[in-house]
């Protein structure tokens, strides 16, 4: 049986894990954000907001909003290139790498 201290520690760890995973899956649960994420994976990153706008036929502000959600979830990172804002997948994040591994195992991602 766990002590109150051990139980409190496990409860805190579980809350952190659940919140992080919940944010990741919530961001990827939207079809457009999932498409953006997989496109970044396939293109190996460095796609700019204006390019997303053109690819998906949406306005630049709409593309920015979708990208911001993915960024806040920790799935992608923003890179400033002069006046352009481009994005890459956060490949150094262990949870993101796990998601990528799962995607590759269940699809044709390379």
List keywords for this structure.
single chain; alpha+beta; Arc Repressor Mutant, subunit A
Written overview of the protein:
The chain has 110 residues and is of the alpha+beta class. It has one domain (4-106): Arc Repressor Mutant, subunit A (Orthogonal Bundle), CATH 1.10.10.10. 65% of the residues lie in helices and 13% in strands. The chain has 5 helices and 3 strands; from the N terminus they run H-H-E-H-H-E-E-H. The radius of gyration is 17 Å and the shape is elongated. The mean pLDDT is 88.
The fraction of residues assigned to DSSP E strands is: 5-15%
* Domain module count: 1
Distance between the termini: 46 Å
Largest sheet: 3 strands, antiparallel
CATH homologous superfamily assignment = Winged helix-like DNA-binding domain superfamily/Winged helix DNA-binding domain
CATH fold-level assignment: Arc Repressor Mutant, subunit A
Taking all Cα atoms into account, the compactness measure Rg is: 17 Å
Reading side by side through the largest sheet, how are the strands ordered? 1-3-2
Task: Choose one word for the global shape.
Answer: elongated
What structural class do helix, strand and pairing data support? alpha+beta
């Amino acid at each position: 049986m766990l002590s109150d201290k051990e139980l409190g520690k496990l409860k805190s760890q579980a809350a952190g894990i659940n919140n992080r995973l919940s944010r990741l899956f919530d961001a990827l649960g939207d079809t457009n954000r999932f498409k953006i994420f997989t496109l970044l994976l396939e293109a190996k990153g460095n796609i700019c907001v204006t390019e997303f706008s053109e690819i998906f036929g949406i306005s630049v502000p709409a593309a920015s909003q979708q990208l911001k959600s993915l960024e806040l979830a920790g799935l992608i990172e923003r890179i400033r290139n002069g006046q352009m804002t481009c994005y890459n997948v956060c490949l150094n994040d262990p949870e993101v790498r796990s998601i990528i591994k799962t995607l590759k195992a269940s699809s044709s991602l390379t």
